[in-house]
Amino acid sequence: TERPKATVNVQPAGHVFIRERVTLTCGIESGDDWNYEWYKNNNLLRDAQRKKYEISNVDQTHAGDYTCKGTQSTGRIYTHTSAAVTLTVSAVKVKPTITSNPEGAALTGNTVTLYCKLHQSAGWTFYWSKHTQSSENETITNVYTISSVSPSDGGQYRCRAGRGNPVYYTHYSDALWVNVTG
């Protein structure tokens, strides 16, 4: 019979930052009772024998190619080794860029859309702050829309992104002025 296939899934992404939490999951397409083996750069990880391999405080020593495979307790059935998933670890916190549409002044009653641009991997939640507010607004996407703007919506806006649990935050963007005119 054909041996089952193993696959590696990485959360939050293959490109992470120092101090983030990373979870690698070994998925096997059939059966349950598996014993798991994890490899980094083709070397067996002796401390990793479960379906999930968690790195709670990632650093640059964790960068590399990860694979997994499974054997059943009888030892007679084993999976193919998964394809490698590359984990890249960056030391520098990223800083998003904030832009607006329209650029410049917005007329009262019109819509202003802010964009928080982050040239990194997936899984981010975006946080928006205005210099006169103590709390942040949260969005799943990198877009923040102010419908029917009024002069009180004018001011400095900044954004940042976060992901994981505990949350890893980027730096704040530079401030962007939103000017509302009559």
From TrEMBL:
Query: What organism does this protein naturally occur in?
Result: Pygocentrus nattereri
GO molecular-function annotation terms? transmembrane signaling receptor activity
Any GO BP annotation:
immune response
What the entry lists under PROSITE patterns is as follows: IG_LIKE
Q: Which residues form the Ig-like domain?
A: 4-90, 96-161
Give a single Pfam family match.
Answer: Ig_2
Q: What is this protein called?
A: Ig-like domain-containing protein
The protein's UniProt keywords, in alphabetical order, are: Disulfide bond, Signal
Spell out the SMART domains in the cross-references: IG, IGc2
What GO cellular-component annotations does this UniProt entry give? external side of plasma membrane
Which SUPFAM superfamilies does the UniProt record give?
Immunoglobulin
Q: Which PANTHER family does this chain map to?
A: FC RECEPTOR-LIKE PROTEIN 4, IMMUNOGLOBULIN FC RECEPTOR
